[in-house]
Amino acid sequence: MRRNNVRRLILAVVLVAVLVTGCTKNTEDTVVIASKPVTEQFILAQMLTLLIENHTDLSVKQTLGIGGGTSNIHPALLAGEIDLYPEYTGTGWLFVLKQDPIRDPGELYEQVRQAYHEQMQVHWSGLYGFNNTYGVAVAEAVAEEYQLKSISDLAQVSGQLVFAANPDFLERDDGFVGLTETYGLQFKGIKEIDIGLRYEAVKSEGVDVITVFSTDGRLKEEPVVVLEDDASYFTSYHAATLIREETLEEHPELSAVLERLTSAISNEEMIALNYQVEIEKQDPEVVARAFLESKGLL
């Protein structure tokens, strides 16, 4: 009986050791991905998850839709609570680093990438390819009537048109104020609207010009024309993956995997992906997987 008890004790110790080792290994081999609470970010986070789990031995824990966006995700990244998430160059430069705007997209990327490395030990991957910045759009009928292709064209006839935007854009120096100064815009009227109602507003008779985000899913179906920002007024918001350098050191295989998204998503493709999830109500993971497979990335 004593020998059996000893054997049971040894077996129990071995099982505990295995369980502890297994748990430790699982923690070490898991990376945490976060996202902001918007459709585009849900899709991108699913892409990153699929790429990592299909091309490495790592597991992924998702923390998606974090309220407050960058305000809460960025501190969590620095604290090591998350490992990576999709971010935008303009957000990093203006909101996190609080620097003056840089109009050249290439210079902006290099400056924000260097600053994050030196100040925070955070790495920017290559840019995905799309730029989710502000845009100025007009109803198709207005674009046709006045032959509008650029915001400079708009400036020539702005005195005959009504502009509408949410209060935040109207009040910001890098929003409406700077836009009108840069292009010499003088609208016949200006209206405040909820950001979620801008497409409904431009379809009414009382609004001719609105602001949009350049990868809005609804651009695929709404009768509007996005005008060229020919003076490069709006700061670029090119997307990329942010990852802690410590995480890259622990898992160097992630570097090549994350670069699979470099230059892989155009503005038109991101609009279509957002449309599939927002308007057609498809699952973000299903949409992400289909896109990656179509690109030969899975």
Structure write-up:
This protein folds into two domains: 182 residues, D-Maltodextrin-Binding Protein, domain 2 (3-Layer(aba) Sandwich); 94 residues, 3-Layer(aba) Sandwich (D-Maltodextrin-Binding Protein, domain 2), CATH 3.40.190.120. It is 49% helix and 16% strand. It contains 14 helices and ten strands. α2 links the parallel β1 and β2. The protein is globular, with a radius of gyration of 24 Å. The N terminus is likely disordered.
Describe the structure using short key phrases.
single chain, 298 residues, alpha/beta, D-Maltodextrin-Binding Protein, domain 2, five-stranded mixed β-sheet, three-stranded antiparallel β-sheet, 14 helices, 16% strand
- Supply the helix-strand structural class: alpha/beta
Spatial strand order of the main sheet: 7-6-8-5-9
CATH architecture of the largest domain: 3-Layer(aba) Sandwich
Helix content: 40-55%
| CATH fold name of the largest domain | D-Maltodextrin-Binding Protein, domain 2
Summarize the structure.
Helix content is 49%, strand content 16%. The protein has 298 residues and is of the alpha/beta class. The longest helix is centred in the N-terminal third of the chain and has 27 residues, at 2-28.
Note the topology.
Blueprint: H1 2-28, E1 30-34, H2 39-55, E2 59-63, H3 70-78, E3 84-88, H4 89-96, H5 105-120, E4 122-124, E5 134-139, H6 140-146, H7 151-157, E6 162-165, H8 167-171, H9 173-183, E7 189-192, H10 198-202, E8 209-213, E9 224-227, E10 239-244, H11 245-250, H12 254-258, H13 267-278, H14 284-294
Parallel strand pairs: 1-2, 6-7, 6-8
Antiparallel strand pairs: 3-10, 4-10, 5-8, 5-9
